[in-house]
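Retro notes (design track)

What went well: tokenization of the new backbones is finally stable.
What didn't: we kept losing track of which sequence belonged to which structure.
Fix going forward: every design gets posted as structure first, then sequence, in one message. First example under the new rule, 318 residues:
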């Protein structure tokens, strides 16, 4: 039985070697990356039976995505389409330190996911699943993707599956007002909300402390749990009227991309294992810390590594 099902786009990430610029490099490293599949991979690495639903062209690039996810134990549930009619989205990531910073360039227009409809996908995977997860990136990709996101959330709810949604706002996809309206329409189908404090303020127009934001969102939308992430200040969760807080674990940052997805993966994995919300916050923070030590979008870790961080070990097991 599948424990976790996710839905969304996975792109190919193309990165020059560190210290080189996209306009001069002669090498690009290729890796798969997408918010929902990142969560599926992270949870799978922690012992969760995970599946990822999406749409891809039946091409070498499409198969490159699924083969990488399978290598981490994730079962892809893909609607394959004619490569002449669609494409795999890509993004280019150029690492840079202070003062230049890291640069991300998206090339995802007309990707196959933008035409994905529920009847094309193996939605029967949701039957018997325990958790369904998607993000605010997916409905921003196209009206069809937005409608399919809603349909899958509804179907999961009808099957009694816990539904989580990570706001994951992307300013390169839509403006705050457009995103706010779309999110509000989805919230009635969400049980667990993950939201960065910054996005709660700038996109959802929420004022106050993280605790006040969590209470306001839970009251207005009926979420069972609201998790507010606060960057270096850690995260907090509100559930059943109780607030739990979790600081970050120290980590050497090799690559910060995918850290938020790793946090969600650790949180969901621990909840599926039977841990309470406090335990889940701790596992989320620990998984995020381990992710920061590795290159790429994915939290390539083990349960033992994350447990070592949770237990306060000075070093991850060798």
């Amino acid at each position: 039985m599948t424990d976790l099902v996710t839905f969304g786009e996975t792109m190919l990430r193309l990165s020059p070697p560190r210290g080189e610029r996209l306009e001069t490099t002669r090498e690009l490293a290729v890796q798969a990356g997408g918010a929902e599949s990142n969560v599926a991979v992270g949870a799978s690495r922690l012992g969760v039976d995970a599946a990822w639903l999406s749409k891809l062209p039946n091409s070498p690039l499409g198969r490159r995505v699924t083969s990488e996810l399978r290598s981490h134990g994730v079962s892809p549930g893909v609607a394959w389409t004619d490569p002449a009619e669609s494409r795999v989205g890509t993004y280019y990531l150029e690492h840079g330190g202070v003062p230049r910073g890291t640069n991300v360039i998206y090339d995802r227009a007309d990707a196959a996911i933008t035409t994905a409809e529920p009847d094309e996908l193996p939605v029967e995977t949701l039957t018997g699943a325990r958790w369904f997860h998607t993000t605010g990136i997916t409905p921003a990709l196209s009206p069809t993707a937005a409608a399919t996101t809603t349909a899958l959330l509804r179907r999961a709810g009808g099957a009694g599956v816990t539904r989580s949604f990570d706001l994951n706002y992307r300013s390169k996809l839509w403006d705050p007002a457009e995103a706010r309206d779309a999110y509000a329409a989805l919230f009635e189908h969400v049980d667990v909300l993950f939201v960065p404090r910054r996005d709660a303020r700038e996109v959802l127009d929420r004022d106050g402390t993280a605790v006040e934001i969590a209470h306001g969102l839970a009251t207005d939308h009926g979420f069972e749990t609201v998790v507010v992430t606060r960057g270096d200040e850690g995260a907090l969760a509100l559930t059943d009227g109780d607030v739990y807080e979790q600081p970050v674990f120290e980590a050497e940052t090799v690559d910060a991309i995918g850290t938020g997805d790793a946090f969600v993966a650790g949180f969901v994995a621990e909840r599926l294992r039977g841990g309470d919300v406090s335990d889940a916050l701790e596992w989320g923070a620990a998984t995020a810390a381990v992710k920061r030590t590795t290159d790429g979008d994915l939290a390539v870790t083990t349960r033992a590594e994350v447990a070592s961080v949770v237990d306060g070990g000075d070093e991850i097991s060798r």
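Added context from the reviewer: Residues 38-55+114-310 form a domain with the UDP-N-acetylmuramoyl-L-alanine:D-glutamate ligase fold (CATH 3.40.1190.20).
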